[in-house]
Write a structure and sequence with these properties.
The chain is α/β, with parallel strands linked by helices and about 550 residues long. The protein is built from twelve helices and 19 strands.
Length: about 550
């Protein structure tokens, strides 16, 4: 298929919607098994050679974060409701590779309790699978991504083999936090990272650009374009800039017959296939099902349970930021190298799980100061959240005159290097009030109702967990060596871009959308992959579990369906 040819593939076995980690891994594994696969991706294929320029966009104050990966505001329009405004377009990227193009790269496994919250604690619902069901696929996902890690987490789940690469060494600021944690008997350990501590799978070792999120120019950090390319090499067809509008089905409503998509020239096509896999993320998966409403499926495709779009989950953060009377050297690297799962078991301190992340990105980067030349605030993100602006564009316009040479050197030296940030990722239980619906009062570039994202209905479980986490973080900061200045406690309630739960899995078709094999209860030839089938999410980043469950689905499709 030529670059400009976006016509449907001829009689494929499987059509996959989305080329993030779920869609690309499934496409690769099925193509490797000899199946004819086509992938429809709403965004474009980003040439690797453009990454240095995209890094420069990320660093320059004239660019908004969404411009780094060319987000299309008209295509990706949405509305928000609920107590917290959900910044969907700051938290996702559309293109081949999906949101792994700009993700942070942390890849811990969910623990045993994350799959059994109802049985163990009486909260939420259990998954229809447990840790042992997913365990071998976790190992396969770690090998696929390329994970650098160490078996030093005493609170982690059981493992069957070593990580593919050695963990990254701790940063200087980690040593300061480790000293404080030792005083409090808090155990710390390495962070599993989907970035190369050595050359791996034909990709570079990390060379330290420090701009991991939103862009890694070296390719050392994994993104799903790696497996999209592998899928194409195995014979899969990938059609980019193909924005799926809806799924069509046969007269009975039992089988999907086609995915209707529109291309940049305004042409509408229908891609047929024997099997369909939705892998478009926690917001777009339910939206496409709701857009596919029909007389046979009056509440939306695969939605006889009414659960499509409901039970949206995210990971809010709380944290403490400030300055120390000594050098912390934060912002020297762009990713975490130390964390603690000591408070992951519910009831340890608060009612729910949280994990502690010791940031290596405290305060502004030197290049931000050089380009903007203003006295930065302790926590730009929190300030921006409070007043609804972009912190790297609007804050501090009316500051001191521009300086150069020795004065600029002194400004940067005074304003950087002594910052610290420590945060806790918080568990939020599924709540049907947190949801994705269609907003018929607003339309996207194609005339479709946009998704409305209602977020921020936190129960006492989450609120008390956030309070407990802030107490622990405060205790750690109190024990840092030296004198703490400019301390600020903050909350990031909008979440980290880990949308999940909106097409939940379960054994009861009246209360879930897909079964334990990610097959839709209501439609014979539809599977749904990614984070949207998650039942609970603990306080761990979801991408490794997305990878593991996607590999499990690919195996099931190959062995039992195709």
């Amino acid at each position: 298929m030529s670059e400009s040819d976006r016509t449907p593939a001829a009689e494929p076995d499987v059509c996959i919607v989305g080329s993030g980690p779920a869609g690309s891994l499934i496409a690769y594994k099925l193509a490797e098994h000899g199946h004819d696969v086509v992938v429809l991706e709403a965004g474009e294929t980003f040439e690797f050679a453009t990454r240095t320029e995209r890094m420069e966009r990320a660093l320059r104050p004239t660019h908004h974060r969404t411009t780094v990966w060319d987000l299309d505001q008209a295509r990706d329009a949405y509305t928000v409701s609920g107590p917290v405004s959900y910044p969907a377009n700051r938290l996702r990227a559309k293109g081949v590779g999906g949101s792994t193009l700009h993700w942070g790269g942390r890849v811990a496994r969910f623990t045993e309790k994350d799959f059994e919250m109802q049985t163990r604690y009486g909260y939420g619902r259990d998954w229809p699978v447990d840790y042992e069901d997913i365990r071998p696929y976790y190992a396969a996902a770690e090998a696929a991504f390329g994970v650098a890690g160490a078996e030093d987490n005493p609170f982690g789940p059981p493992r069957e083999q070593e990580y593919p690469m050695d963990a990254f060494p701790r940063s200087h600021s980690d040593s300061l936090f480790a000293e404080a944690c030792s005083t409090l008997d808090i155990e710390v350990h390495s962070v599993p990272n989907a970035r190369n501590s050595e050359s791996y799978d034909g990709r570079s070792q990390c060379v330290g650009y420090g701009t991991c999120s939103p862009v890694c120019p070296s390719g050392a950090k994994y993104d799903a374009s790696v497996h999209a390319k592998k899928a194409i090499e195995q014979g899969a067809t990938l059609i980019d800039r193909a924005v799926v509008q809806r799924l069509e089905h046969d007269a009975s409503g039992d089988r999907i017959t086609g995915a209707v998509y529109e291309t940049p020239d305004g042409t509408t096509y229908t891609q047929s296939a024997d099997e369909f896999v939705l892998a478009a993320g926690g917001i777009e998966n339910p939206r496409l099902l709701l857009l596919s409403e029909s007389p046979q499926h009056p509440g939306g495709l695969a939605n006889s349970s009414g659960a499509v779009g409901k039970y949206l989950m995210e990971h809010p953060y709380v944290g403490v930021a400030g300055r120390l009377d000594r050098k912390t050297a934060q912002n020297r690297i762009g990713f975490g190298t130390m964390e603690s799962y000591q408070f992951y078991e519910p009831g340890t301190v608060g009612p729910g799980s949280f994990k502690i992340e010791f940031s290596n990105q405290g305060g502004p980067k030197p290049v931000e100061l050089a380009l903007k030349q203003r006295e930065p605030l302790v926590n730009l993100q929190k300030t921006a959240q409070n007043i609804g602006i972009d912190p790297l564009v609007e804050l501090g316009k009316d500051t001191e005159p521009i300086v150069w040479g020795d004065e600029l050197r002194d400004l940067i030296a005074d304003a950087t290097g002594d910052r610290f940030t420590v945060v806790a990722e918080i568990e939020v239980l599924p709540n049907e009030r947190n949801q994705v619906t269609l907003d018929t009062s607003e339309t996207d570039a194609f005339g479709n109702p946009v998704p409305n994202i209602e977020w921020g209905h936190f129960t006492d479980y989450a609120e008390e967990t956030m309070d407990a986490a802030k107490d622990i973080l405060g205790n750690i900061v109190d024990e840092l060596p030296g004198t703490v200045r400019d301390r600020e406690v903050f909350e990031l309630r909008q979440g980290a871009g880990h949308s999940a739960g909106t097409t939940r899995m379960g054994t009861d078709p009246s209360a879930s959308v897909v079964d334990e094999n990610l097959r839709a209860h209501d439609v014979e030839n539809l599977s749904i992959a990614g984070s949207s089938p998650f039942v609970t999410m603990g306080a761990s980043q979801p991408t490794l579990t997305i990878g593991a469950t996607s590999l499990r689905l690919a195996e099931y499709l190959h062995d039992s369906v195709l």
